[in-house]
Amino acid sequence: MTDTIYALSTPVGGAIAVIRISGPDTPLALKAVFNGKTHHRYLSHGSIIAADGSALDDAMAVYFQGPKSYTGEDMAELYIHGGYAVSRRVLDRLAELPLRPAGPGEFTRRAFINGKLDLARSEAVMDLINASSSRGAASALEQLQGSLSRRIEKVEEEILDLLSGIDAAIDYPEELEEDVFSALPKGIRAARAEIDFLISGGMASRMVREGARIAILGRPNAGKSSLFNAMLGEDRAIVTPEAGTTRDILEGTLLINGITARLFDTAGLREADSAAESIGISRARDIVDRADLLLIAMDGGDAVSHEERRLLASPGRKLAVVCKSDLAEGAEAFALAKEYGVEAIGVSAVTCEGIDALIDRIAELIAPECESALVTNSRHIAAIRECSAALSSALQTEEADCIATDLRSALIALGEITGKSVDADVVDRIFSRFCVGK
């Protein structure tokens, strides 16, 4: 990386814009465009100057001498006024120098290559930028600060200790073989337990980062749309006594314990009376496959049906919501939910009785108090599953060479997370989704 790059790191149009410069020619570039006195890590005031010495903007600048910078190399940031005209003039001035525009994520990529961040922490940078909820932002920040990396490194050390023991036992079989191999199963199980713990938290952590999907299902006129409106606190869905009013998926968003929840009101499940309703019902069934939680709406004043039995028996996490509690006790609906082992909560969309209790219970299901070090993206989950499979394979063999091979495979899988053994194409894909300037 002998070239020096630059990019605007903030959107145009705000009060302040930030331009980053990184690479070996950073001091020369900073001297060429900024007339203030700069010192390592000190913010300086001055002017951005054109090639002829005229002022382009009143600005601040800071210089970071490598390796004590974000990228690990000489780096500077210019703080200029954020209007389009000013930003354009300053970027055009930089384009006159022997610099080149940065590509997507290139500053963070240089931080990764220079050992300032491992791959897990690098990915957390973009997760933090894209976080849609306070819990998601907190989780990404924890990962940026190294919480996941430290847990992965701990398991890597445990596996390396096991491997070194195997190597020593092979070299000195008479002295070490019995002690080493008798202790192997316990050590492998301990490493796998830590990995399986990370796997188990994968779904909860994904919901923290991306938000939860909650679908309301049930027969026509069971009270789904009224429940949808009551949970959102606004009249989003049309509610009438006529069955089949909802013919498409309606979506709303609410915040539950710091997690963004996407709530879906679906078409009533029955034999469709029209092509439009048929399409809506088809889409409702698709939502079931993608939802993190199903709310089975049941009319507390109506007799239960085969459709409700089918929904209660379906796979996935679910709650039964007995609607219209202001009109009927819903004894039959509660009994049916109990028969299928599904927790039931009574609500009234008219009086809002039970709505808070329902949301509190949903919070317990979708927003558990999980550790923020848990895995939060699908690439990491795939890697730790590979590690778990390799450790399980190691427990099923007694051949020293085979055990060592499985343990090395487990290490390679963990290296996919931290970047120690990641393929270059994977690195390219990861940083290609970053914004320019980060």
Provide a descriptive summary of the structure in words:
- By secondary structure, the chain is an alpha/beta fold.
- The protein is built from 16 helices and 12 strands.
- It has helices at 26-33, 84-95, 106-113, 119-130, 134-144, 147-171, 173-200, 202-210, 224-232, 275-290, 306-313, 331-339, 355-366, 378-395, 400-418, 424-432; strands spanning 5-8, 16-22, 43-49, 55-64, 75-81, 100-101, 212-218, 250-256, 259-265, 293-299, 318-323, 344-346.
- A 6-stranded mixed beta sheet has the order 3-4-5-2-1-6.
- Helix 5 packs across helix 8, helix 6 (147-171) packs antiparallel against helix 7 (173-200) and helix 6 packs antiparallel against helix 15.
- It is flat.
- Residues 238-247, 270-277 and 369-373 have low confidence and may be disordered.
Q: What fraction, in percent, of the residue positions are helical?
A: 40-55%
Strand order of the largest sheet: 3-4-5-2-1-6
DSSP strand count: 12
| Class by alpha and beta content | alpha/beta
Main beta sheet strand tally, sense and closure? 6 strands, mixed
Pick out the low-confidence regions.
Answer: 238-247, 270-277, 369-373
Mean pLDDT: 82
**Principal-axis shape:** flat
Throw out a few tags for this protein.
6-stranded mixed sheet; single chain; 438 residues; alpha/beta
Please summarize what this structure is.
The chain is α/β, with parallel strands linked by helices.
List the helices and strands and how they pair.
Blueprint (H helix, E strand, L loop, with lengths): L4 E4 L7 E7 L3 H8 L9 E7 L5 E10 L10 E7 L2 H12 L4 E2 L4 H8 L5 H12 L3 H11 L2 H25 L1 H28 L1 H9 L1 E7 L5 H9 L17 E7 L2 E7 L9 H16 L2 E7 L6 H8 L4 E6 L7 H9 L4 E3 L8 H12 L11 H18 L4 H19 L5 H9 L6
Parallel strand pairs: 1-6, 7-9, 7-10, 10-11, 11-12
Antiparallel strand pairs: 1-2, 2-5, 3-4, 4-5, 8-9
Helix pairs in contact: 4-5, 5-8, 6-7, 6-15, 7-14, 14-15
